[in-house]
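Dear support,

I submitted the protein below through the web form. The confirmation email said the job was done, but the results page showed an empty box. After a refresh the structure appeared. I'm attaching both so you can tell me whether what I see now is the final result or a partial one.
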Amino acid sequence: MTMRHTVFSLAFSLLLVARAAFAAEMVSIAGEDINMRSGPGTEQEILWKIGDGFPVEVVDSKGEWLQVKDFEGSTGWVHKKTTQKTPHMIVKANKGTEQQINVRSEPNTKGQVVAKANYGVVFKTVEKKDGWVKVEHGQGVTGWVEGSLLWGF
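What the results page shows now:
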């Protein structure tokens, strides 16, 4: 392997790491009825509205605008001022069903079920431990959810 090839490989590896770090940036929505737009700017079409705490992954930015992707893979643009770094998660399990996930008193399947949640319910992330996430809902429920059932921070 030549020195030039080694330098190129190293530079390419660093670029991939940098892209992965950027692609993994998560934010959550700050406020109710925030416009998700088709492009970066207030003149762009409103695709849908999203609510407080909704977690999104930043995939690109342009000026004060962030292109984001939600847990279903849909993308759109939001203004930076409508986002926050406070970690939130959303229930990704059981799409298209009435089946609910358990929110437990402890980070294990033996913990008492303190609440249940449907697909798409947003929780504030409080703590992570051994594959479990301690979550808090706006209606005052706090408990643990198995991490594979959630998407977000």
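Response: this is the final, complete result; the empty box was a page-load delay. Residues 3-23 form the longest helix (21 residues).
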